[in-house]
């Protein structure tokens, strides 16, 4: 069994950072052991009676499995007991009454918890796992958490994430507020925006002012450390490639007219209309996927180009298992019809073991349900993106299911791209990634 002596130097750096700061931010990429490091810091703080009752807030899948499963693997942590606060109201209330060392709740229930404990909150340390899910400073989730961290009993807070800024510096305010209640970046999001950003002429987008990025980094670097996997781990190569899938002349004409006029003419049904730019973007992504939903959720078929490309990938890689990302419900339905060797990741993750044993040819997942806490790197090294989303966090987390510590082979990542909207989306992800890399470099521990 592993013990404290088996911890790496970079993990001890995380441990000391959490212990030495009442509010501590850990921006560490996947595979660096944030969980065991945080548990070790919590255990040390419990032993020193610095804290008495810690609460961890995490994604649902992580809440149910990751934290509780990690502790028994380590000799210095296997005595820790956990109470998992999920399920029905009755089950959650019962879990709160359990005598445990550490309590873990899914982030969707933080509003309920805040309403339950308006004054007599029992937890003196709050840890946010994947804190980027609290990046929206106006969300109910964040507002509920904001009330809790202001309570006198909460002596310590910590945030953990591998994707601190999926949309740029604008995402940092609420996460840093969790640590210092606004001392470094402002007491509210309005103050933060006005200080460090300029609004575009419509007032919808915020562009960081010249030199403001360095200013932000300098203000928060005393309570935040960043660790990149490439600096500490020996990982295989990650080889991304874009498979260019051209539209036919007829389809390309339809696409261009739809993009220009916000209306797609249909022969046997009502025309499909996009009333806003956001709606148009979504409809164009549907067009690129091969089918479009109308206002009544009827599906209209346009092409099978992505499935033809997937067929070629399968044929050219007969010895490789494929982790496949899809976006739309109609893609899931079509994949189920076409590929007998394909399975979908179920909610209970019952086919994880079979995938890791190499017994599943194609494992299909939606990125929103497969981002965190899923160790499936043993089952394959080939990723195929059938559809895309604008979220850098979901994109990076999905790829990290295979490109992580324990992967023995180089990871190839194919992006099946149809139509200008998907190329624009991929360029947007690359730009967001560049900004996040800048933040990591500036806060490097």
Description of the molecule:
- The chain is built from 18 helices and 19 strands.
- With 445 residues, the protein is an alpha/beta fold.
Q: Roughly what is the average pLDDT, rounded to an integer?
A: 92
- The global form is globular
CA radius of gyration: 23 Å
DSSP E strands, number? 19
Tally the helices.
18
- Contiguous low-pLDDT stretches (5 residues minimum) are none
How helical, in percent, are the residues?
Answer: 25-40%
Strand order of the largest sheet: 3-4-2-5-6-1-9
State the separation between the terminal residues, measured CA to CA.
Answer: 29 Å
Strand content: 15-25%
Main beta sheet, described? 7 strands, parallel
SSE class: alpha/beta
Summarize the structure.
With 445 residues, the protein is an alpha/beta fold.
Record the SSE blueprint.
Blueprint: H1 9-20, E1 23-28, H2 34-47, E2 54-58, H3 60-64, H4 66-70, E3 82-85, H5 89-97, E4 102-106, H6 110-116, E5 125-129, H7 140-149, E6 156-161, H8 172-180, H9 189-196, E7 197-199, E8 206-208, H10 212-220, E9 224-227, H11 229-232, E10 238-244, H12 249-261, E11 263-264, E12 272-273, H13 277-289, E13 291-293, E14 299-301, H14 305-316, E15 322-325, H15 329-338, E16 342-344, H16 352-356, E17 362-365, E18 382-385, H17 392-399, E19 411-417, H18 420-442
Parallel strand pairs: 1-6, 1-9, 2-4, 2-5, 3-4, 5-6, 10-19, 15-17, 15-18, 16-17, 18-19
Antiparallel strand pairs: 7-8, 11-12, 13-14
């Amino acid at each position: 069994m592993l013990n404290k002596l088996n911890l790496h130097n970079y993990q001890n750096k995380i441990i000391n950072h959490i212990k030495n700061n009442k509010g501590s931010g850990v921006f560490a990429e996947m595979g660096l052991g944030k969980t065991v490091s945080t548990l070790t810091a919590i255990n040390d703080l419990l032993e020193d009676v610095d804290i008495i009752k810690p609460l961890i807030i995490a994604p649902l899948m992580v809440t149910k499995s990751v934290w509780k499963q990690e502790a028994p693997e380590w000799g210095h942590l296997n005595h820790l007991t956990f109470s998992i606060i999920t399920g029905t109201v009755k089950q959650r209330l019962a879990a709160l009454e359990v005598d445990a060392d550490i309590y873990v709740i899914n982030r969707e229930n933080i509003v309920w918890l805040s309403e339950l404990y308006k004054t007599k909150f029992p937890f003196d340390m709050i840890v946010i796992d994947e804190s980027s899910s609290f990046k929206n400073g106006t969300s109910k989730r964040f507002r509920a958490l904001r009330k809790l961290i202001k309570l006198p009993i909460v002596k310590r807070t910590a945030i953990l994430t591998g994707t601190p800024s999926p949309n740029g510096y604008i995402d940092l305010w609420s996460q840093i507020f969790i640590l210092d209640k606004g001392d470094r970046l402002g007491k509210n999001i309005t103050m933060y925006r006005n200080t460090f950003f300029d609004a575009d002429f419509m007032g919808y987008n915020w562009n960081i002012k010249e030199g403001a990025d360095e200013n932000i980094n300098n203000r928060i670097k005393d309570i935040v450390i960043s660790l990149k996997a490439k600096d500490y781990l020996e990982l295989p190569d990650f080889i991304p490639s874009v498979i260019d899938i051209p539209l036919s002349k007829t389809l390309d004409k339809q696409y261009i007219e739809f993009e220009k006029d916000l209306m797609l003419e249909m022969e046997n049904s009502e025309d499909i209309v996009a009333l806003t730019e956001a709606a148009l973007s979504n409809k164009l992504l549907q067009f690129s996927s091969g089918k479009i939903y109308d206002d009544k959720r009827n599906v209209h078929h346009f092409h099978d180009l992505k499935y033809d490309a997937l067929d070629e990938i399968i044929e050219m890689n007969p010895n490789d298992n494929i982790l496949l990302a899809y976006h739309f419900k109609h893609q899931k339905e079509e994949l189920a019809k076409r590929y007998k060797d394909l399975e979908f990741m179920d909610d209970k993750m019952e086919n994880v073991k079979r995938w890791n044993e190499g017994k599943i040819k194609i494992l299909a997942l939606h990125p929103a349900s497969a981002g965190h806490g899923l160790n499936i790197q043993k089952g394959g090294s080939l990723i195929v993106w059938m559809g895309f989303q604008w979220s850098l966090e979901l994109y990076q987390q999905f790829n990290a299911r295979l490109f992580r510590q324990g992967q023995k082979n180089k990871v190839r990542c194919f992006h099946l791209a149809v139509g200008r909207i998907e190329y624009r989306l991929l360029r947007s992800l690359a730009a967001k990634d560049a900004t996040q890399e800048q933040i990591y470099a500036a806060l490097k521990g």
